[in-house]
Amino acid sequence: MIQLNTPISEEEARSLQVGDPVEISGYILCGRDAVLPKVLKMIENGRAAELGIDLHGQVIFHTAVSPAGVGPTSSNKLEIESSIEALSAAGIRLHLGKGALHKETIEALDRHNAVYAVIPPVTALLGTKTSEQKIIAFPELGMEALYLIKADRYPAIIAAAHGRSIYD
Prior knowledge:
24% of the residues lie in helices and 30% in strands. By secondary structure, the chain is an alpha/beta fold. The chain has one domain: Fe-S hydro-lyase, tartrate dehydratase beta-type, catalytic domain (fumarase), CATH 3.20.130.10. The chain has a five-stranded mixed beta barrel with strand order 2-3-4-5-7. The longest helix has 9 residues, at 36-44.
């Protein structure tokens, strides 16, 4: 089991391979289809610093944060998958969700030295491994706002890295 602590360095991202089991600890961002297009607009307009967090080396979990906890949503939803390249270019090193990604997205991850990991849909388990949560941006979206949470050993498997996918 590979232990990853956020932020993730360029070297750590480069060393991860498809099929590697990982446990992720530290602060990670949470966002899905309602908030990611808003974050992309901020990046495009040079306003990402207004989020109050450096995106370099960050992990983004494709999830909403609800009273029931967190659990992955499908990363291949249009609004989510179309955000992966721009977020990777902005410094995100690891995208965390579920489901297969398109070949073009896997190639984009490779171009920006980022990886994608799948996480089992185990909301109750992840709830016990989450010690903090706060809204970073877009509170009007409720549980789909951009959150920052503190994770303690979230289990995942690297599903796309270096132009390869576990789904191939």
